[in-house]
Amino acid sequence: MPERTTDKGNMPERTTANQSGGVNFFGGKPDIKGDVVGGDQTKTINFAPPPELDNALRPVAEAIRSAPSEKQAEAEAKLDELKREAAKGEDADDGVVARLVDGLVSLVPGAVSAVVAAFGSPILSGVAGSATKFVLDKIQG
Description:
two-stranded antiparallel sheet
């Protein structure tokens, strides 16, 4: 198989016809900080939100627990996804946050005041961009 030159130096990149994944070590000593996962391997990462985020969203979790049982699992999944996205801080995707907030209150209308209050907290007010603010205004009526 022909060698290609990468844009990082002039190290040739070698691939084989039956290669799975995209990890190639060629020449030198690799310096890896973290896990290398490729091919058919998967990696599960446990997520624990910062305590401030968990505290700000605790009333939302309580509102979900008082919702009809058929809505709880989906609402809890949206809340978990919201926590993961919000934990990114300034790097959070405002569109994703807005969609999750809208979906959450559609499932659990009784959570509106808890969601609005949560986004008044310092940890969540920083991730609320224009799309999230629009949704927050919309759900307040």
